[in-house]
Design brief:
Mean pLDDT: 96
Number of strands: 11
Low-confidence stretches: none
Helix content: under 10%
Structural class: mainly beta
Shape: globular
Order of helices and strands: EEEEEEEEEEE
Largest sheet: 7 strands, mixed
Number of helices: 0
Amino acid sequence: QVQLTESGGGLVQAGGSLRLSCAASGRTFSNYAMAWFRQVPGKEREFVAGTDGNDATPIYGPSLEDRFSISRDRTRNTLYLQMNNLKPWDTGVYYCAGRYTYAADMQAVSYPYWGQGTQVTVSS
């Protein structure tokens, strides 16, 4: 079994920063792809960032690469998402996801394993 647990969300003003964490336990994803998605009511789950099994080729959703950064600490089995210069439209529930394959993917359906999500709210 594997468990993914997100933390680090909260309320910030536009222009502020947050760092989200995703701790993995059980069968972890040290050599496999992980990703962040976000979702707001009435919209489909949106790809935010992903990293392959060697963290060699990070990928980002449209217009996010300049503000967001995905990273991983394998000693702690933890995935991070650093979010800077946050905008009101970044508001949503942020989810961590993993799959036991090397390459990251932008489609939510590609990831069988998910955390419970953490709320990010950016005020204007």
